[in-house]
Structures are given as C-alpha cells and as structure tokens.
Design goal:
Blueprint lengths: L8 H24 L7 E6 L4 E8 L3 E9 L1 H5 L6 H23 L8 E7 L3 H18 L3 E5 H12 L7 E6 L4 E8 L2 E8 L4 H11 L6 H9 L20 E2 L2 H17 L5 H27 L3 E5 L6 H14 L2 E3 L3 H4 L4 H11 L5 E2 L12
Parallel strand pairs: 1-4, 4-5, 6-10, 8-9, 10-11
Antiparallel strand pairs: 1-2, 2-3, 5-12, 6-7, 7-8
Helix pairs in contact: 3-4, 5-12, 6-7, 6-8, 6-9, 7-9, 9-10
Length: 372
C-alpha cells in the first residue's frame, strides 16, 4: 500500500470538524420542526424485503409513497433470505429515493428532515437503509430522525384518518410482532399485552409452509380459509383470554403440524381449506377477544389496527364484531399502509420531532430488536 493511501491526522481532524458542523446545524433545524406544522419529511424503510421511500407533509399528507417489493425474488426460496434482501435494498434504494422526490414534486432542498427505520427488523437490511439515510442527510445538510418500526406502523393510522388523535388502543399485528398498546399520546406508548412466542403473521407463514402453500404464506392461508369450514378442533380445550393479556401461537401452530402429519402418515388427504379456516378462526378469534379486553381495561373507545396482518379480512371482521358487542370503534389503514412502507416512517418522524424527540447523529446504528 502506498504511504499516501492512509488518511493523515489532519484529514481526520477536518472530517471531525465537518461532522460537528453538520450535527450542530442539524440540531438547529431540528428544533425548528417543533413549530413547523407543514414540515416535509423524507422517509426511508428497509427493515425486511420492501425497499421504500416516501415524502410526507405535516405527518398526514402523503406526497409520494414508493415501494419496491422483493416478493418475486424470495418466492423461489419459500421465504425472505436476509442476505438477498440486503443486496437488493442496496441496488434499489438510490433510485427509489429519487423517484419518491420526483413523484412528490420536491427537491432535496425542500425537505425538512430525513427519517429512517433503525429497528426492529433484519439487521443487514436495516443497515442499508440507515447507512443511506445518514449519507443522504449529511449530503443535503438536513436533520436525521430515527424511527421505531413498530411505532411507525401505528402512525399509518394518522395518515389514513387525518382527524385521529390519541388516546386510543392499538393492535400491531405483523410477521414479526403482535402487540397490544395503549397510545396515551403521540409519543407515549404503553405495552398492555402481546404474543409470548410467535407473532400472528409468523404463525400464518409457518402454517402455510406445513400445507405447502407458496410464499407469501399469510395471504394464501387467508384466501383458502374463505373456501373452507372451521370444523377442525385443533385444541381439545378452548383457550380463553389470559389475565396478562398475552397470547401464544406456538401451540396452535404445533397443533396444525401434528394434525397434518397424522393424516399424511395415514395416507389420508389433508383438507387444506378446512385447516386454513380452522386455524384462522382460532388465531384471529382469541386475539380479537384479547384486544377487546385490552380496550375495556384501558377505558378507551377506539382500537387502531396496524401492521401487515392488519390487511387480513378475518381479523378485521372479528375486531369489528367485538367492537360492536363491547362499544368501541375499530379503524385500520388501507392495504398499502399496512405492509412495510416509508410513508408511515415519515409520519412517525414528524410526530416525534414535533415534541423534540428522535434526532439522530451520524453514529446511528441499526437494531434487530427494540424494547417495548
């Protein structure tokens, strides 16, 4: 290696000065967001297999929402391969950001901040988005705002219903999370319950694999459930709402596995549609009753549904039925805002920044898990 290939102490010092200047300026701009109701935020999302960028004004008005799905890429593997997802994020993200700005009709100078999901999710995939956001924020001299992925899902409801305000309860149901939350304020979330093991979306996907259904499993289970009958008793004893508002899906998943394997060993056909319907009825029914108890205990009058499984029609119907029976309303975002997207990230950043929270430095790192 040539001697001059190594940076000198002077170069390091200059770089540190530039970084310090950027972060000081970012802090000044970030503080101004508290009193800027029409702030324009660029959101970046790469936590799993969707590469997304969006521009949102005022936390609720979506100017653009660009999503590049990797479903077809991962279908051949029967599920998301983290390394493949990360590589495709790297390839797609620059163009996705450019497209988001173009569709929004804004330039980089019009932005008031750059928001990015830092966790939870696949660590390699998250690192791509975090690295891109840090570089972009630094390049355009704008504040960097770190966003919790779970909180972002809840914020999708603020986009869907521009009149929605806390307090309310929220059910976050996705491939990686099943949580019951009391949303006391825009930045005050309290966990009231959730899964002890598998998330609801994860359970759907595992059941799909047992039944040899193609990826993505959840939507295929939902589709077949509509064609079947919930006439299979997967549990010998009905499961009731637990005192701690927790739910468990590992046992239900295992019950499906045992049922299917028993039929296969006997050489009998597996009634796939009926299995899907029976599993869905058990999984969704218990969660809906637990969510209803969560709303009752908290004294709220509204339950907001969020996350990828929020698109499930059976879950929506079960929650609406519980709401009608127990005197609370249910709301949920449109499908495009249920799955991973960057509009929810930009929205969440707006509401955190409005209270002076979320500013990140160039040392921001990704986290595969976030505490709740």
């Amino acid at each position: 290696m040539r001697a001059n290939a190594v940076s000198s102490p002077i170069s390091y010092e200059r770089n540190n000065i530039r970084i310090n200047m950027y972060e000081e300026n970012a802090k000044i701009q970030f503080d101004e967001l508290k009193n800027k109701p029409d702030a324009i935020i660029l959101g970046i999302e790469s936590s799993c297999d969707e590469t997304a960028a969006a521009v949102v004004r005022g936390g609720r008005e979506v100017l653009s929402n660009v999503i590049a799905s990797q479903i077809e890429i991962h279908r051949r593997f029967g599920g998301v391969v983290p390394e493949v997802a990360s590589r495709n994020h790297t390839l797609a993200l620059p163009n996705i950001i450019d497209q988001a700005l173009k569709e929004a009709g804004v330039t980089a100078s019009d932005l008031d901040g750059v928001a990015v999901t830092f966790g939870a999710g696949l660590i390699g995939a998250l690192l791509v988005g975090v690295s891109a956001a840090k570089a972009y924020a630094y390049a355009i001299n704008k504040p960097l705002i770190a966003v919790n992925h779970i909180e972002a899902h809840v914020s999708a409801n603020f986009i869907a219903d521009k009149t929605l305000e806390p307090p309310f309860c929220a059910l976050v149901a996705s491939g990686g999370h099943t949580l019951l939350l009391d949303i006391k304020g825009y930045n005050e979330f309290e966990k009231l319950g959730g899964t002890l093991d598998d998330a609801l979306g994860e359970a759907f996907d595992k059941v799909a694999r047992v039944l040899s259904l193609p990826y993505p499993g959840g939507p295929n289970v939902e589709k077949l459930a509509k064609e079947g009958k919930p006439n299979i008793k997967l549990y010998k004893h009905p499961k009731g709402v637990r005192q701690d508002l927790s739910v468990s899906y590992s046992g239900l998943k295992t019950a499906v596995v045992n049922y299917v394997h028993t039929l296969e060993q006997r050489g009998e056909p597996v009634p796939v549609a009926d299995v899907c319907a029976s599993f869905t009825s058990e999984a969704v029914g218990l969660l809906a009753k637990t969510a209803a108890e969560c709303v009752r205990r908290s004294g709220r009058s509204l339950l907001a549904l969020a996350g990828g499984v929020a698109s499930n029609g059976d879950l929506r119907a079960a929650l609406k039925a519980e709401g009608a029976a127990n005197g609370f309303s249910v709301c949920y975002p449109p499908h495009v805002l249920c799955t991973d997207n960057a509009a929810m990230v930009a929205s969440r950043a707006y509401f955190t920044a409005r209270e002076g929270k979320g500013l990140a430095g160039l040392d921001l790192n990704a986290k595969s898990h976030v505490a709740f």
